[in-house]
Amino acid sequence: MAMRAVPLVGGPVELRGALDVEITQAGVMPRRLPAWTKEQYPDPSVYGVTVMPSGVRLVFRTDACELEFEVLTSTGQFDIDPQPRPTGMVDLLVNGTLAERRQAPVGKTCCGWRAPGQSSG
Known about the structure:
Radius of gyration: 16 Å
Strand content: 35-45%
Number of domains: 2
Number of helices: 1
Low-confidence stretches: none
Shape: globular
Strand order of the largest sheet: 1-4
Number of strands: 8
Order of helices and strands: EEEHEEEEE
Helix content: under 10%
């Protein structure tokens, strides 16, 4: 069966844990603070913290055997850091049970999962 695109906004997917969603040319960016709060923090670094999606979850129902998400991740690096900090983790829960946890890829890439016992063909 062919893959089909499902919108993250205005469709069957619920973004839990995000108080706002910013639509950009790169895609959907969940925010941990409402958009109206942007004017209240003068330091630009605060904006970066508000768009870190820690705790944001995509919730949906499907009978699909394969899932694929295109994601864009970034990491921070301070002058004292010898190398960039690691990206966060991505958890896949099936019926509320942790099925897989993996390190989020760096940059723009696809994350895919296949149900156990399913072939790629």
